[in-house]
Amino acid sequence: MAKLKTWVLAAGVAALWGSTTYGLAADALEPVVVTATRTAKPASQASASVVTITADEIAKRGATRLEEVLRDAVGVQVVSNGPVGAVATPSIRGATGSQVLVLLDGVRLNSAQLGQFNLSDLPVPLSEIERIEVLRGPASALYGTNALGGVIQIFTRTPQQQPLTQLSWSEGRFNTRDVGFSTSARRGPGRYRLSASRERSDGYRDNSDLEQTIIEGMLGFDLPGGFDLQATASHLDKENGVPGSIEWPSPEARQTDRNTLASVTLSGPVGAVDMTVRGHYDRRRNTYRDPGAFTPADDRHLLKTLGVEAQGEYGFERHSFLFGGDFYKDKLDSTSSGDPEDERWSLFAQYELEATSWATLLTGLRYDVHSDFSNEWSPRAALLLTPTDSTIVRFSASRAFRAPTLNDRFWPDTGWTRGNPDLDPETAWEYEAAVEQQLGERTEVSLAAFRREVRDLIEWTEDGMGVWQPDNVSRARIWGIETGGRVQLHELLAAGANYTYLHPKNRDTGDYLENKIRHQTHLFMEIGPILQTHLRLDGRHLHYYSQPTRRHNSHIVLDAALSRPFMLGDGWELEGKITAKNLLDKDYESTPGYPMPPREIFVELTAYF
């Protein structure tokens, strides 16, 4: 308990001189967020805790991968198997990867086969991201399954009137190279964006190499009557080695992924209702081969998902209504899991009342119907208070669920493992209280506390006959505290910090949940521009449990990024950047048994014209 008090005190002191790590600069415009309510509104009017990460902040950090962007956000842990291209999944407030929903411009990225989304498989280059919104806390009342712990939504760049083309090249340790191209513009009522990237790396472990190509594009039109039509498509082609853990290496294992995602969105006013209709198709082909394993593997999986969504928004005076529904059909063709398929549909509604100038009440309800297990109700209630122009207080209570995956239900009977078609969804209730406070013109601080009660956790257990299968076996209670801040100390100097404390326990055994952070601290400092040069320093400390009764060694990692633009004339601009990752060359692990990369230095050049 003494250690907890010390950590909270340290975080509180940090918060008194900073705001949320990815918070507002003193002179910045207030960001607009969408994820909290599925409608666009200023962040100060959102009824949930949302962190916004902008493209400018991504660039200043020198991040080259999505997991590097997310891992320093308050309340977020990224669980990685190490090498570039390896499995990396997000955790929000102690949730598993399959309990966190990841969206790309409103389209679900979570796999129906695995439940989670591998952040290494983002089907757009990082340079095409306009912003990322991280919603902390359950959101099944709006999004259904997988949103038990939170939602991460990625928004791609919107083409501007002025055409923009960029070429990028980066080189780093272990023969890591990434080249990219993108172009975008508006032409009358039309707009377009096209980008491509190619990345390769030898990796820092045996059999940890990567080759990856991404191509994506968008085409949109402003239609008569205020309507808008937009089509997007992306393709990821990836091959990488799978080195395994230190204890159980797999020097011959190889994996390939060929994923295609396409969507069409139509939006506009229908009478007094703002309507949005979207259809999307997701095709993922995965191959895993390991001829050197004790039981040689040659697995091939083809997952197809078809989705249709519609929602309407209507408001008058102090009232706002949102209603909608969706339909999804998943079909798997697998050499190991057979050819199962499922269907699900839902209806949802939300009502928001501005009771007074300083109090807003929100209620929401969603009903999900699944072809293979029980239907789920997901209610939510929230209260937003703004007693002063500089103070925001939020209270909320939500129910959420996570549906069993196709692998959970249809894993093949190998004699020692098999799936369980009789699984029930995981369910949870979460309660949250949060406050944000602006201190003068340069400083903002935040504090949130939450408690989550989870039932019917799905875990793989042994049935007494030597056969392992998933079952609804346990309950969990996770409570925690999140605090953070940012301060603009000088026009050339900004600093900030955030801290997360989690107490994740299995209520049936009393053990701590494995691979959940206990303490996570992130500090940063931004200097510049001085002589047009900008420096960013990031440090983070993590301490977590790798086993139910054993603490894993904590670690401190420092990153740095130095950047400078050069104006070349005739509309040309060149930006140079040097990024150091794991600057202190620490030996550490995000997942026990999977070492993270040693010190890496990257040089990047990007031309804009």
Key traits:
Maltoporin, Chain A; mainly beta; 34 strands; 60% strand; 609 residues; globular
What can you tell me about this protein's structure?
- By secondary structure, this protein is mainly β.
- It has a single domain, classed as Maltoporin, Chain A (Beta Barrel), CATH 2.40.170.
- Helices cover 6% and strands 60% of the residues.
- It contains 5 helices and 34 strands.
- A hairpin with a 5-residue loop joins strand 24 (443-462) and strand 25 (468-490).
- The model is unreliable at 1-27 (pLDDT under 50).
- It is found in: Cell outer membrane.
- InterPro entries: Beta-barrel_TonB (IPR000531), Beta-barrel_TonB_sf (IPR036942), Plug_dom (IPR012910), Plug_dom_sf (IPR037066), TonB-dep_rcpt-like (IPR039426).
- Belongs to the TonB-dependent receptor family.
What's the topology here?
Layout: H1 2-16, E1 32-33, E2 41-42, E3 49-54, H2 55-61, H3 66-70, E4 76-80, E5 88-92, E6 100-104, E7 107-108, E8 129-136, H4 140-143, E9 150-156, E10 164-172, E11 176-187, E12 190-201, E13 210-222, E14 228-241, E15 254-270, E16 273-290, E17 297-316, E18 319-334, E19 341-356, E20 359-370, E21 376-388, E22 391-402, H5 406-410, E23 426-439, E24 443-462, E25 468-490, E26 493-506, E27 516-530, E28 533-547, E29 550-551, E30 555-569, E31 572-581, E32 589-591, E33 594-595, E34 600-608
Parallel strand pairs: 6-9
Antiparallel strand pairs: 1-2, 3-8, 4-5, 6-7, 8-9, 10-11, 10-34, 11-12, 12-13, 13-14, 14-15, 15-16, 16-17, 17-18, 18-19, 19-20, 20-21, 21-22, 22-23, 23-24, 24-25, 25-26, 26-27, 27-28, 28-29, 28-30, 30-31, 31-34, 32-33
